[in-house]
Structure formats: C-alpha cells, structure tokens
Design goal:
By secondary structure, this protein is α+β, with helices and mostly antiparallel strands. The chain contains 5 helices and 8 strands. It has helices at residues 11-36, 60-67, 72-89, 102-124, 135-147; strands at residues 2-3, 6-7, 41-47, 50-56, 96-99, 128-132, 151-155, 162-166.
Length: 168
C-alpha cells in the first residue's frame, strides 16, 4: 500500500523505521550540541505515527537559545533534523522535536485556546477566527476543537494561515 510516493509501512516495520529516524535525529542533534558547546540529554520516543525527539537538561538558559523567540529556532532545528534523517533514509520525515519542554507547554496552551474558542463559537453561534499560527499550532487547535465537538478549518496563506472555529 502506498500513500503518495511513500510506502505505508504497518506494524512492527513502522515502529522500527520510526525508531531508526529517532536514532539518526539523536546522533545529528548530539553533534549540533557538541559544536555549540551546549549541554543537553536526548530522549527518543514514538508518538502515534511519528518519531519524537526531545533535548532536555538542567541548563535552561542554554536550551532557551535553541528554542528562540516563540519557537523560531526550534522550528528551524526541527527542519534541519528532518533533512538529516531524509539524507540518511531517503524518506521524508515527520519527526517532532521538542527542546526543554517548549512544545509540551505550547500544546497545553493551544489545547486550552482551542477549547475556549469552541465554547465561544457554541455560545455566540458565530465563527471564531484565531490569530495566525504555525502548522503545529493549528493541528493542536483543530484537535482540541474536534474534541469539543465542533468543526474547524484553516484559512489564509502562510505565514498568515489561521484556524476558524465553526459553530454547530
């Protein structure tokens, strides 16, 4: 079975492939940490259908440099890491990178935002337009809106693409 040009791998093969992506990403990130002379430990996991790699450590200020303003550096590092995985495997990676728990905190905030927007749309009966967001942010909000029992859609062009929560 294929999806686009990428074969869909099921079961244990998919897990092994995602674990391999995590290993490649961890090696790449360890090299970057060494070059930048930053301390951090690498945690790997598989979350759903993607590899998840986190840089954790005690040096919050150092890790904050890797996150950047509103996650801009984190997004760039994630793309570079995905490219490193692609270079090794030949497959496009959907790997998710977190640094110092930034994405985990952001996910909680965005889930709350999506839930509140859904409640506002239910109450007012009007669509609720949110601020422009990254693809990661929009995905989290769409999931929260769906969990609240409403539909949402994205509108606009990058980088001004935003979520609109639709009333029932």
């Amino acid at each position: 079975m294929t999806e686009g040009n990428t074969p869909v791998v099921e079961g244990e093969d998919a897990l092994t492939r995602l674990e391999q992506e995590g290993e490649i990403a961890a090696d790449y990130l360890e090299g970057l940490l060494d070059i930048a002379d930053l301390d951090g430990d690498i945690d790997m996991d598989v979350e759903g259908d993607r590899a998840a790699v986190s840089i954790v450590g005690d040096s919050g200020r150092d890790l904050q440099k890797l996150v950047g303003r509103d996650g801009e550096v984190l997004e760039a590092l994630q793309e570079l890491t995905r490219l490193a995985v692609h270079r090794e495997t030949g497959d496009r990676s959907r790997l998710m990178l977190d640094i110092g728990g930034f994405r985990a905190r952001k996910r909680a905030e965005l889930t709350e935002l999506g839930t509140k927007a859904a409640q506002d749309a239910k109450t007012s009966g009007e669509p609720v337009k949110l601020r422009p967001m990254t693809p990661f942010e929009r995905k989290v909000v769409h999931d929260a809106v769906a969990a609240a029992g409403l539909r949402s859609e994205s509108e606009g062009e990058e980088p001004q693409r935003r979520v609109v929560v639709l009333p029932a």
